[in-house]
Specification:
The complex is a heterodimer. Chain A is mainly α. Chain A has ten helices and no strands. Chain A has one domain: MetI-like fold, CATH 1.10.3720. Helix content of chain A is about 80%, strand content about 0%. In chain A, α2 packs antiparallel against α3 and α7 crosses α8. Chain A is globular, with a radius of gyration of 22 Å. By secondary structure, chain B is α/β, with parallel strands linked by helices. Chain B has nine helices and ten strands. In chain B, β1 and β2 form a beta hairpin. Chain B starts with a strand and ends with a helix. Classes of the chains: A mainly alpha, B alpha/beta. Chains A and B meet through α7 and α8 of A and α2, β6, α3 and α5 of B.
Chain lengths: ~240, ~240
């Protein structure tokens, strides 16, 4: 005999609906800000990894190995509990005063973690560009960074968009770990609702569905991009 | 202008692709390099702008040693135009931007002036109406003419052509050769790798014949085509001029 009373009405209305929506908003904010930052960081790491300078390359390799081979949760704890000890006291005071330290630490961890995967995606994109493009750039006197910036990356990033969308999906899901340091994103709010109402099934089902819908919408947009934009242009010589 | 001094090059330390190359190309001279495939012609001209490093000997361009650490290779390459067999235009840029990219970035030419110069060059290669097209919208012959305009936009001292017509459909070869011929008459120093013997006869000041990585014969075109000295060149000419026999 099931003696659990389902109450969908309770969590989908009033105050608790508000909690879920504010959680979704923070999840989107966390994922979007981290995505933009990790894209640029990933670009820099990718270019460093392809540089002709051995030490620059080695630095990028160390970064990639450390970031990809340690758990994201540990990285989040590192930035939240560990990093502020290295900062000057004045910065700490300022960070505490902003009340945003949790968000900043989570954004840093997610940005750094995701940038490593994005760097590898961009490198695959660059490898798909014929080496003759680089030779043509060098032959007209451009430097390595100019060739990257104006010739290779614009072509590579266009091909990298589908994997980048996947990284964004991963990021949106990974951002749920930010609840562990008190960022009030979607999972955190579902947990809050559960502890207030004891309606854990409803709360986490709602959160699950929101994550699912979010992912499906983004995947759908990517399908459209693939069909309408990437395929017609794929035939270029 | 270009000076090869006892140049040797190996691929993967075993394949000997250039053997003791000694050659002097004078300012304003047009040198055609020919020979069977795999003879090292393309590798030879790719050493001139440092696309291929050499393991022995020295390559000098306009008084600078290409391999010298003190040489600013980017600056040297800006003075050396290179035209590839496969054109290698930038597919994401319009024709006009393909041409102006290097002048704007390397020479710091203001965009307005770079565009004006590019338009002149496009007129010169007969493509003034294609400035706003993307490379994929052009035929092979048109793309190669844009590639020539792109190289000329840097006002180079030297132009290198690596089999510029080998990837073209036969009916487009003429339009590209015509452009190169005009350049040859303008007094530019040029090295042209080509199988087009009629063209070589017409524009070359000197013909270099290569085989197995070495320069086998150097001659005036009228001598080379009428009475080649080496057996290898005689056989090559027979095969190129009469492919059926």
């Amino acid at each position: 005999m099931l003696n659990y009373q389902f109450d969908w009405h309770l969590i989908l209305n009033g105050e608790y609906r508000q909690w879920l929506l504010s959680g979704l908003w923070l999840t989107l904010k966390l994922a979007t800000v981290s995505m933009i930052l990790s894209f640029f960081l990933g670009l820099i790491i990718a270019v460093m990894k392809m540089s002709g300078q051995r030490f620059v390359r080695a630095g990028a390799s160390v970064y990639l190995e450390v970031v990809r081979n340690t758990p994201l949760l540990v990285q989040i704890f590192f930035w939240y509990f560990g990093s502020f000890k290295l900062l000057p006291a004045a910065w700490n005071e300022w960070l505490n005063a902003t009340n945003e330290f949790e968000f900043i630490a989570a954004t840093m961890a997610l940005t750094i973690y995701t940038s490593a995967f994005i760097a590898e995606d961009i490198r695959s994109g660059v490898r798909a560009i014929p080496k003759e493009q680089t030779e043509a750039g060098f032959s007209s006197g451009l430097s390595f960074l100019q060739v990257m910036r104006w010739i290779i990356l614009p072509q590579a990033v266009r091909m990298t968009i589908p994997p980048l969308v996947n990284q964004f999906l991963n990021l949106a899901k990974n951002s749920s770990l930010a609840m562990t340091i008190g960022v009030a994103e979607l999972t955190y709010q579902a947990r809050q609702i559960e502890s207030h109402t004891l309606k854990g099934f409803e709360a986490f089902t709602a959160a699950t569905l929101i994550y699912l819908i979010l992912s499906l919408v983004i995947t759908g947009l990517m399908e459209i991009y693939n069909e309408k934009i990437l395929k017609p242009r794929g035939a270029q010589a | 202008m270009i000076h090869f001094q006892n140049v040797d090059k190996w691929f993967h330390s075993s394949l000997h692709v250039l053997r003791d190359i000694c050659l002097e190309v004078q300012k304003g001279e047009v040198v055609v390099v020919c020979g069977p495939s795999g003879s090292g012609k393309s590798t030879l001209i790719r050493t001139v702008n440092g696309l291929e490093p050499v393991q022995k000997g020295e390559v000098w361009v306009a008084g600078q040693n290409v391999a010298d650490k003190k040489t600013d290779l980017n600056a040297l390459r800006a003075e050396v135009g290179f035209v590839f067999q496969q054109f290698n235009l930038y597919p994401h840029l319009r024709v006009i931007d393909n041409i102006t990219l290097a002048p704007r970035l390397v020479r710091k030419t203001p965009t307005v002036e770079a565009n004006r110069h590019a338009t002149e060059l496009l007129e010169r290669v007969g493509l003034a109406d294609k400035a706003q097209n993307f490379p994929s919208q052009l035929s092979g012959g048109q793309q190669q003419r844009v590639a020539i305009a792109r190289a000329l936009a840097m006002k180079p001292k030297v132009m290198l052509f690596d089999e510029p017509t080998s990837a073209l459909d036969p009916e487009m070869i003429g339009e590209v050769l015509k452009v190169i011929q005009d350049l040859a008459k303008s007094g530019l120093t040029m090295m042209v790798v080509t199988h087009e013997m009629g063209f070589a006869k017409e524009v070359a000041d000197r013909v270099i014949f290569m085989d197995k990585g070495a320069i086998v014969e150097t001659a005036k075109p009228e001598d080379f085509f009428s009475q080649p000295k080496s057996d290898r060149a005689q056989l090559f000419l027979k095969q190129v001029l009469n492919p059926m026999h």
